Every structure is written in structure tokens, then in C-alpha cells.
Task: structure prediction
Amino acid sequence: METQGKYRLLSLDMDGTTLDSQKKVPTAITDAILALQSQGIFVVVGSGRGLCELVDYRKSLKGIDYGILLSGGLIYDFRREVPLLVHAIPTDTVLTVIEIARQEDAMLQLMTTRESAVSERDIERMPEMYMGIYQDMYRRVCTRITNQPKFAEQHAHDVVKINLYHTSPESCARTIKRLAALDLTVVHAEGTGCEANLLGITKGTGLKDLCAKLGIPLEETVAIGDAENDLDIMKTAGLAVAMGNATAAVKAIAHDVVSDNDHEGVLEAIKKYFPSFSLSCHQEKILL
Result:
């Protein structure tokens, strides 16, 4: 496969991809992002996370230009700190999802363009939902709500994504079956979770939206990911790279598989598919 100078945009998933298992961005990856950005290559976050969930990574991701956030529901300009495009879920649908969550006593997370809203009770029982590794972050960045329907009505046209976490895979499967009756895109999330966006909205549609704004052909893009919500963006991008820790479904549609997220698979992909980055590293070694 010819790669010299071919790719102009790199989309990076966060959890399981750019972040290691301790939820840190390796310094070498931060440096690589800055190097690519300095060469005119767009580096974007393609994540299910929202803005408030990226606060801890502002320094590590300072070379990031744009975000395909909330699984494609929000396209964000980090340079100007403004949303470029928002795909909100209708309030009536949000209210129905809240009721579905109650049927399984699931942890419900309502995500707007800038907030992540959950109840205090749900934050405290996150380990039961196989989400314990995120508990500290949720305690620090989430908006606490006691009345979910009221929050949804007060944030009409602003709830972009809904996450639901469960105590068992069987409970999650029942929720996904109920959500199938709604006009939503629903995918399995890590552990016993699932996520819902407006029907037809995915990271893949987010990549199309962003590339249209930037004037970059899709065949000149690379997407790296590991999970089910990465499938559509990887099918959409010109080159799909799966992490070594990716699911079997993700590896099956990828053009290449690199090392896992604890062995800097992202850096491996950058060196392989962005020759200008490798060349600049070689020149720096000569200068040293």
C-alpha cells in the first residue's frame, strides 16, 4: 500500500486506544501529535467522550485541532473552543430512554454539548456497573442531578448522547432490545454498557461532517480504534487501524492491526502511515 504523503487527517479514539490502561496519554504520543500538527496534518479526537470528560487531557492533547465527540453527535473546534455541529436527541425520546433505564435500574448518563449529568447514587455504584476505573473522573467532572426528566426538559435540543450502564450483560441486552424501538443509533459500550445517539449519527458520520468542513477527501484520512463505536468511522476512513486490544469485530474490518494501548500502538501507526513524522524523527536524531 502506497502511503507517502497520502494522509492528511488522523482520528484517534481515546479509551483503549490513545489512553493506556491507566487512562494516561503516553508522552511519546503527545509529542507525535504535536509533530504531525506542525506538519499541517489534522489530528482529531474521535471519541464517545464529551468535553467535560476531556478536561484531564487538555495538556496531553494540546496538539489536537478538532473533536468528533459524543460518538459523532458533537463536532468541536478546540482552537476556537466552539461547537461546529450538534446532533441532539429529541426530548420525548430522551424521556423514553430514562424510563427504559429505570426498568433495569441502570446507571443513566445524559450528555449535552458541555455537561455530563448523572445522579450521586449512580456515581457511588459505578463499580457495580463495571465502571469503577472512571469513578474518580465522574466525581470531579459530572453535573449531579436528582430529577432526570426535569434535566432533559431544561436541556431540550442539547442532550446529544445517552449512556446506560448495567450490573450484568443480560440486563444490558434487555435495554438494547427496548431501545431498538426508538429512532436511535445504539451500540454496545465497554463492559455492560450501551450508548445511544440520534438515529444515523456515528463517529463515521462525524468524520464525514468534519472532512466536508475542512475540504479533505475521506480517502486521505486514518482512523484508529478498538471498540464497537469505532466500527463506522473505521469503515468510513481511507485507512482503518485496529489496536492490538481491539474487539474481534474491529480487527475484522481493519486494514492493519498494531500493538495494544499499553504498548503505544498509536505511535506505531503514526510511524508507519505518516512518513513525514518518521522523517522528522530521523532528522532530529542526526542533529543530536
